[in-house]
Amino acid sequence: MWLLGLPWALALLVSVASSGPSADAPDPESIFADLSAEELRAVRTFLMGRPELGLSPSQGGPLAKNSLFLVELLPPKKRSALRFLEHGGPRPRREARAIVFFGAQAEPNVTELAVGPLPRPSSYRLLAFKGGRAVPFSARPMTRLEYELLHEALVAAMAPLEPLLLEATGFGFQNCSERCLTFSDIAPRGLGPGERRTWLVIQRFVEGYFLHPAGLEVLLDHRDPDPRRWAVRQLWYNGRYFGSVRELAESHARGTLPLARLPEPPARHLFSSYEPRGRFASGTPTDVHGAKVCEPQGRRYRLRGNRLEYGGWSLAFRLRSSAGLQLFDVRFGGERVAYELSVQEAIAFYGGHSPAAMQTKYMDAGWAMGASSYELARGVDCPETATFLDAYHLLDADGPVRFRHALCVFELPMGVPLRRHFDNDFQGGFHFYAGLEGRALVLRTTSTVYNYDYIWDFLLYPNGVLEAKVHATGYIHATFYTPEGRRYGSRVHSHLLGNIHTHLVHYKVDLDVAGSGNSFETMDIRFENISNPWSAGARVWGEQGRGGTGTRCPWADPTPCPRYHLAVTRRHENEPSSSSIYTQNDPWDPPVTFENFIRDNETIEDQDLVAWVTVGFLHVPHAEDIPNTATPGNAVGFFLRPFNFFNEDPSVASRAPLIVRPLDPPACSRLEIQRWTPPSAGACVHPEPFSYNGTYRQV
C-alpha cells in the first residue's frame, strides 16, 4: 500500500514543457506532452478560419467581440491512455482545449471546445461542464485589452483629483511619462453573480510599487461591454468613503480633507528594492559566491521530451497554462503508483479595514497561474547545473508565446543523510558506521501572479517517497496604513499595512497503487491502559492503532473554500479539476463546485479514487517581509510514502552508501572503507580523500 501521508502518506509541512514532442513521437509518454508552438498555431489558424465562430484577433478592437482566449492540451481520457500505455491499444486522439469568448452576440458567454486531431485539426466539439453548466460572460478572466480600457477609464475619471494626488504623492495620472500613478486590481469583482465592479488600489509607480499605495481606492464598474458606460461608483481615501469623484475633489478644494502626504521616494536604496543596504554584524563576506550544487560525474537523471527518469522513478509532466504543473503516469520500479498528480488552485483570503483589503479573495487559477511561468534565473531560482526547459502558451494572444526557461530539473543534495547509523561499541570505538547521502530530483517552476511568487516543486527521493511542495515569496499584498487597519495586520512601513491573509493550495492525487481499484483508510492512534503481563498489579500505558475509512471535503463551498485537509472521491472523467479559471470572477455560482463531487455519497472501496489535498498557512505580515516575503517558514506541502509496499527500503538499490568497519576493534586504528562510487567526487568538492576515525577517548 502507499500512504498519502494518510494511505502514499500525507504529512503536512505546517510551520512543459519545451516545444514538446510531436504527435507522432515514439515515446508513449508524449500523449501527455504540452502542445508545441506549431500545434498551438495550427489550432488557432483552424478556429480563426471557421466562419460560424466569427473570431476576431485578441488584441485591439472592442470588448464586445468573439475571440480566442486560451489553447492548451486536452489530456486523453484515462481509460484510453491506459489501454495505449499498458495493453498496446491505439494511440489516443490528440486534442486541444480551446476557450472562446463570445462577446459579439445578444447573449454573451464563454464556451470551451475540443479541437483535433492534432497536429492537423479538422473538427471541433463542445466541452460541457458537469451538469451542463454554462459560463456567463461576466465570469471570464481579465484580458490585456480590458486592462488597457480600464486604465484609460481610470485616468479619465481621476482628472478632477489630479491636484489632490500631486499634492499628496508628487505623482499623477494625467499626461504622465514619469512620476506616474498605477493601480492593482482586486477580486472577486463585486458581491454577487453577474457583477464586474472592481476595487482598484492606487499606487506610486516605483520599483516594488505593490508597497507604495497612495491612500486612494476606487470602485470602478466595468460590466458593460461598452467602456463608455463604465463609471466610478465609490472611493475610499485615507480611511473615509466618498460617493463620487466630485465629492472627494470638492472636499479637497475646501480644505476639509485630511491629506495623507507621502514622503519623496529616494533615488537609491528604496525600501521596496533589492539593492543591498546595511552590513551583517558578523562580518560574513557576502560579495563572494557561497556554496553551489555540482554534478562531479555528470547528470544522473534522464530527460526525454516530457518524460523524466531518476533512480526508480519515471513520470511524464506538463505545464498547463491554466493551473500549472501536472504529472502523469508516475511509476516507481516500473509500477504505476499515481496516474495524475497536479496543482489545482492557489487561494489567498485577506482581511482589512479598507474596501480593497476586505474584498480580496484571490483564486489564482483565474489569473492563469500556469502561464505566469516567467524565466528562472540560473544560479538563483535553480542551480547552475539544472536543465532548463521552455514553455509555450497561447493565452490572450494572437499566437504562441515562448516562455524561456520556465521549468528546471536538477538533482539536489539534501544536506542530511537519507539514512545513517553509528554502531557504538561503548568502549570508545564502534562496530561500524554506515550512511547513505540524501539526494532528490527536483522538478520546478514558478508562478508570478502580480505581487506574489509561488515556487512549485515536485521532489523524487530514492526510497520511493515523493514530495509536493510550494514556497510563497514576492511582495505582500499591502494597503494604506490607517489606525483602524491595525486590527487586520501589521504596520510594516510608515504608510503601509501588511494585511493578514491565509494561503491555501489544492492538489489532485489520482493514486493507482497496484492497479486502479483502491480503497481509502485512515489510522488513528490512542493510548490504552492494560495490565502488565510480567508484573502483577502494574499497569502499562501504550499506543494502539485503529483503522477506519471516511472522507472529508477540503473544498466544500463554491468559492471554493477549504474546510478539511483531505477529501477522497470516486474518479470521474467529468470531474477533472476542483476549480476553474472562472471561479475568481464568479465565486457565487461557478461552473465547477467541488461539493458536488461528494454529494452523491458513492462508495470508495475498491474503486478508482482521487485524493484532493489542501495545504496552507496563515501569514501575518511583519517588517521582515520587506522588501519580499522570504521562503523559510513560508512553505507547505505533503508527502506520498510507501507503507508496507516493498519488502525493504528500495533505496538499498543505490550504489552510493558508505560503510566503515574497524579491522582491529576496539583500537579501531585500521579501517575497512566500503564505497561503490569513485574514491574522489571531483574538483567541485573537498579535494582531500575521505577519512574517518570513529573513536571517542578521554583526553
UniProtKB/TrEMBL annotation:
CC annotations in GO: plasma membrane
Pfam families on file: Cu_amine_oxid, Cu_amine_oxidN2, Cu_amine_oxidN3
SUPFAM superfamilies on file: Amine oxidase catalytic domain, Amine oxidase N-terminal region
EC number(s) recorded for this UniProt protein: 1.4.3.-
Stretch forming the signal peptide: 1-19
The Copper amine oxidase catalytic domain, residue ranges: 292-528, 563-651
Cofactor note: Contains 1 topaquinone per subunit.
Modified residue annotations for 2',4',5'-topaquinone: Y452
Class of the enzyme per the UniProt entry, highest EC level: oxidoreductase
Recorded GO MF terms: copper ion binding; diamine oxidase activity; primary methylamine oxidase activity; quinone binding
Residues at the catalytic site: D364, Y452
One Gene Ontology term from the biological process aspect of the record: amine metabolic process
Stretches assigned to the Copper amine oxidase N3-terminal domain: 140-240
Keywords: Copper, Metal-binding, Oxidoreductase, Signal, TPQ
Modification after translation (UniProt): Topaquinone (TPQ) is generated by copper-dependent autoxidation of a specific tyrosyl residue.
Cofactor(s) demanded: Cu cation
Residues annotated as domain Copper amine oxidase N2-terminal: 38-123
UniProt keyword Oxidoreductase, yes or no: yes
Protein family: Belongs to the copper/topaquinone oxidase family.
Name of the protein: Amine oxidase
Organism whose genome encodes this protein: Pteruthius melanotis
This protein's encoding gene: Aoc1
